[in-house]
Design goal:
The protein has 254 residues and is an alpha+beta fold. The protein has four helices and eleven strands. Among the domains are: 119 residues, Tumour Suppressor Smad4, CATH 2.60.200; 53 residues.
Length: 254
Amino acid sequence: MGDELMQTMQEVDSTPRLIVECMTSTLAGRRFAFTATDLKRGVLLGRASDCHVRFDASKDLKVSGHHAMIDEREGKIMVRDQGSSNGVFLNDVRVTAGGAAVLSGSKLALGQEGAIMKLLVPGQSSGKTSQGMHQAPQAAPADRPLRPAPGTGAVPVAPAPSPPPPLPPADQAGRGMPSVQTDPALLQQRAPDPGPKPPSASDRTRMVLKEEARVAEARPRRKGGAGVTFAGALLLLLLAAGAIAAWHFMGQPR
């Protein structure tokens, strides 16, 4: 009975708890599997000879000797900075010695220009974010045609758009929004005076005809006035000639 229990415990312990998949560096393409026992002891990543994930000391120069550690405490897999020179980044967020929780599919970078790894947790969904929250499903575009639900053949009906908010009553216009009838500032805003309206074609025609009639009416008056002036001048000449003749006649000796 004891041997069977020991064998079962060994089989459970041999199940990978964490898989480290190297994406870049000299270890690109290699995968490292660690059990729950390994994580309790701590998995070291770096260039030192005692690291569990050991990088090339002569080529992976952005990776420190003891760069990061991955361990498991209270059921949470954590990654911690071990005093590295270029920092540890989990999903592009810098990690301190206090550590950050690892979720399946997380991206681990040893330095901004160092080695990049993908951390996989068997049995855990990779659709979670680094904060452990599921991403909200994106709404379908409005122009996408609706399809029948599987197995029903019924087309789902899109929700009707909400009606616009009602306008405020006339007697409450002065409370919320300004009213044209009650707001003096709006009453003072009048349209600019466009000025005198230009005469139309018919008005111009009437004005020309009126001017021609006035000129034609003034012509006989000017002619009559000229005739009267000429007759007056002739009468004055006759009177002057008569006066001269009388004076001359009276001046002759008798």
